[in-house]
Amino acid sequence: MKTVIVPVDFSETSVHAAKYAAKLLAGHYGATMYLYHSYSKPVETANAKGALESLKTELLKETVLNIETLAFEENDFVDGLEKTARHRNADLVIMGITGKSAIAQVLFGSNTLKMAQRKVCPVLIVPEKAPFKPVKNVMLTSDFKNTLESTPSGLITNFLDMVNANLHIVNVDSEHYISLTEDYEKEKQNLKELFKDYRPEFYFMRLYDVDEAINLFAESRNIDLIIAIQKNNSFITKMLTSSRTKALAYQSKLPIMIMHE
């Protein structure tokens, strides 16, 4: 990954995400991390640029990384961020999310979820409770439907190569019994072939609550990061759009990377 954009509004949540991003990218000399901030009034330009440079200086005290700053006047935060990501051909956007209060969620958390729904590039959501640790075990959630057409294998393998992590592919379905159906076995073999160089491990869980199952598995297997593929009518789409299932993003202690099919 060469171009990573990290939007900051200088809140504790966004600064935490920036620190996480800097540590994640540290040592990857071909990568550039852009600290991005948008503001609504021209008089804010100088303060915005100054604050970004201060944050850059702070991050560089602890990290060896190429960091640039971007400050733009924008009417809409998410639209401006999307435009910047497209113009810079971003490989990844890293954003924070907070569960502290309803107001905090509206001001920053909702923008994070909105950006995750845009089909620009993967978005890595960093919860405020997520401390940085090296990414050694990655969980890929899959519905095991049309896997060859819907799995962005190139994006996933690029990230796995960057962090040198083990891959755990997980499916949760209330219909699972002792053995897999023929359709599930076929899709499993498709994924096994897609990720053959990474020797993925497969897990099939018979549970009704997807959010609970993912969190339980992550804890039991020492998962460091979750990758979820957003598909139409998939559980991840529902997670991003319904108030009940937003809990996974808001309450998780693990970073969640949202990719699109």
Keywords:
single chain, 261 residues, alpha/beta, Rossmann fold, 10-stranded mixed beta sheet
Explain this structure.
41% of the residues lie in helices and 23% in strands. The protein is of the alpha/beta class and 261 residues long. The protein folds into two domains: 3-127, 3-Layer(aba) Sandwich (Rossmann fold); 137-260, Rossmann fold, CATH 3.40.50.620. A ten-stranded mixed β-sheet has the order 3-2-1-4-5-10-9-6-7-8, with helices on both faces. Helix 3 (77-87) packs parallel to helix 4 (102-117). The longest helix is centred in the first third of the chain and has 16 residues, at 45-60. The radius of gyration is 19 Å and the shape is elongated. The two termini are 18 Å apart. Mean pLDDT is 83; it is low at 99-108 and 239-250.
